């Protein structure tokens, strides 16, 4: 079906931006949106408007942070009030301690926190803490798990040649202390653990790799093995924190890490991240053995935003998580059912408030299955959906927020039905 979808404003903006802004975007993946990276002028609740005036139901949510949707009242009020008093002090201010207390109240394993600005940064802080606390060097990570763009964790080409840099310009030496294991394979982890492993870093639910869940037995056995080895277990909850439950994946799964990395939803759209964990391990920061620096660490506006997010989620939990579960379940169901038997069959894996869709496959259970998916087909399909008023990430992660409504899902069902017509034989 032909839909009139004017993207001329986005197109001319992208041309202009590309002249002086490298790749025309501020984070590489945004350039992959088809037919053109859309330029947005406004967001409110579950909706986005682009510079051409098109309205979209947003399931990208700025790549995850917008757990309360775009510009929720609670956040606007808290941030505006803080802005009037000062945006950032580069010094202590009372909201920092209040936020650390709120994190320790809500995240089961958290006793002590340290703030940074992005998930990437906080992962590096956690690794440094683990190395200092253990006096060891190596880090184990898992195939398909994403932990930011820094050289030691941004790996690709996991095939027979082993891990390789994920980007041009990376220092291959930076990954010399990184060991990659298979997810949900206890034998793989067991054989990689030795007396020089400082940290085992994992997404407790591997959302980036495909929303791939490990078994309960695996997580428990892995936690026990890591502790027995004297290594630090780090949960990267940058996506799952405050999203899959108030206390994150660790609360939902009943397995506690030693350190947790938080980001995205913590700030509700403002750049703030945290490492939170056992006080005896965080002691290496507390007693200054580990240098923890950053001009914007604990920036007042971002801290005010994070406090507003936690306060609001505490107010509406646990019911809100049942709702996020239902919303993502309905979205996944619509995507799978509507595309069944078409030339764009989708398989969707999900957890509370988040999912991961794959095109060209009917089921995804493990990392190897994700390699069978047709990434280009999915990208093209997201362009079709865009023309029908649905905004998705060009790679398959799906997010819903507390602002999404059943009416949004009704609209989405119709839009997907219309977009799928051209894929029917
Ligand atoms: N860890 C996980 C699990 C992520 O999904 C991401 C980002 O997508 C990061 C770390 C890096 O966070 P940021 O993009 O805020 O640097």
TrEMBL record:
<protein>
    <submittedName>
        <fullName>Glutamate-1-semialdehyde 2,1-aminomutase</fullName>
    </submittedName>
</protein>
<dbReference type="InterPro" id="IPR049704">
    <property type="entry name" value="Aminotrans_3_PPA_site"/>
</dbReference>
<dbReference type="InterPro" id="IPR015421">
    <property type="entry name" value="PyrdxlP-dep_Trfase_major"/>
</dbReference>
<dbReference type="Pfam" id="PF00202">
    <property type="entry name" value="Aminotran_3"/>
</dbReference>
<dbReference type="GO" id="GO:0030170">
    <property type="term" value="F:pyridoxal phosphate binding"/>
</dbReference>
<dbReference type="InterPro" id="IPR015424">
    <property type="entry name" value="PyrdxlP-dep_Trfase"/>
</dbReference>
<dbReference type="InterPro" id="IPR015422">
    <property type="entry name" value="PyrdxlP-dep_Trfase_small"/>
</dbReference>
<comment type="similarity">
    <text>Belongs to the class-III pyridoxal-phosphate-dependent aminotransferase family.</text>
</comment>
<keyword id="KW-0663">Pyridoxal phosphate</keyword>
<dbReference type="InterPro" id="IPR005814">
    <property type="entry name" value="Aminotrans_3"/>
</dbReference>
<dbReference type="GO" id="GO:0008483">
    <property type="term" value="F:transaminase activity"/>
</dbReference>
